[in-house]
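[stage:ingest] chain + small molecule (iron/sulfur cluster)
[stage:ingest] validated
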Amino acid sequence: MKRLLLISPLAPRSLLGADFYYRIPCLSLLRVAALTPPGWEVRVLDEKVERIDCEQDADLVGITAMTCSANRGYAIADRFRQRGIPVVMGGIHVSSRPEEALGHCDSVVIGEAEQLWPRVVHAAETGQLERSYRHAHGPPPLDSLPQTDWSLYRGKGYLPVHFVETTRGCPLDCEFCAVTTFFGGRYRSRPLEDVLAELRGLPPFDGFVMKNVVFFVDDNIVSNRAYARAFLTRIADLGLRWVGHASVNLADDPEMLKLCQRSGCMGVLIGFETLSAETMRSIGRKCRLRMDYLDAIQRIHDHGIGIDGSFVFGFDTDDDGVFDRTVDFVTRAKIEVPYYSVLTPYPGTRLHDRLSRENRIVNHDWSFYDTSHVVIRPQQLTPEQLEEGYFQAFRESYAKPSMASRLQASTSCRQFFVPMNFGFRDGIEAVCRGRFIGHRVERP
Ligand code: B12
Ligand code: SF4
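[stage:predict] done
[stage:export] tokens:
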């Protein structure tokens, strides 16, 4: 039996790094594991929850990487290659920077692993790895994804949540996001029966109050309305408690809201990004600009669905009042879990291209690209103002009075949102105390 190690490197400075509350499993490597041909013993190692021993035996190593974990991934790749073990890298970062990755690994998978990974493994078996593999005709169909094997994660101490996907792709193509380039500009859906089979096969989390929590990782779980209606109707009797990304337009669809509620939706993650219509236009998001967010949020809350609302600071249109305006809105709207990010120019995005042209990217060390560090020169703020404002917004939103005010009124699942708030509060405090390596000392 040959040995395959699949590795997820730690993003060393990320707020969502190794802390307890962020012990979240990685679906990408379960997908790659499921595609591996017979004859291989597969182990998945996640540096967020365990030490990576680069001296261990392996016949092939596969490493995934987001931008903020890419440098760490390269360091691990170097160590295995020094011992003559072939290394293949994949994921969203190396797909946009294959030449960079090839300085550290033998081969790069550009795009989704489906249809490519079995070829890579066979080539590795005969010592004939090519430098890169990519889909010749666009992203692959999702009609025969092999089932994920969650037993690969047994005993790793992850939070009790399973990750499942129903669609990939997004047509909205926001300036700062790489999803449209990476997964394609149209929603591709998995066959309903496949997703249902996967959900029915998930092992329950014994010993936890909520035994059946699922995070749908789709970029918008209600994107394809017809599919979402059928899907939510079918999962209603599975007894799930689920969260997933949705657009705020969900509030306009009473039938969909009811279906979400009946199927066990505890909360939706909504990327509001900004409260300014001008900013919305500038990032090129094709959606309604004049929606009354407070009213929309109320309608979602009325269905017992909580909101994880995400906001980005540092757009060209942001002035120094943006932080207070956003925190104030979050408190008034009683958003259960506010999440703030510093605008970050990820490679492969239009934002990265524009800011490069404007010579405004001031830090090229990927380990800072975790949305908690300023790596650009903002237009109306200094980098220091942006960083301070970002942390201050987090601290204010996770101060106990704000948490109490946001959560007391909430009709959504408290068992889920209250611990999550304390998790974020601890994480923010830890970062602000400078507990994370080099944080607050190294500046772009
Ligand atoms: C779920 C999720 C999370 C989860 C879990 C992350 C995890 N470890 O899996 C949480 C909430 C923790 C998270 C956190 C963050 N996330 Co996130 N997240 C996602 C999301 C919504 C889904 C990821 C997913 O599971 N996709 C489904 C799987 C199957 O797809 P995949 O990961 O791309 O894997 C496929 C291919 O890439 C390839 N592949 C991947 N790895 C490998 C390895 C090998 C060897 C091979 C051959 C192939 C291969 O094959 C896989 C199967 O086809 C994506 C958006 C998206 N649509 O992907 C953002 C996304 C990945 N996140 C992103 C970001 C920025 C972050 C944060 C920095 C956010 C923040 N503000 O803090 C943090 C960083 C976390 C950290 N590492 O410390 C960005 C990444 C951009 C970039 N260039 O790095 C994305 C793309 C969102 C976006 N709109 O831009 N995230
Ligand atoms: S930010 Fe969200 S809506 Fe915009 S392109 Fe990315 S996934 Fe789509």
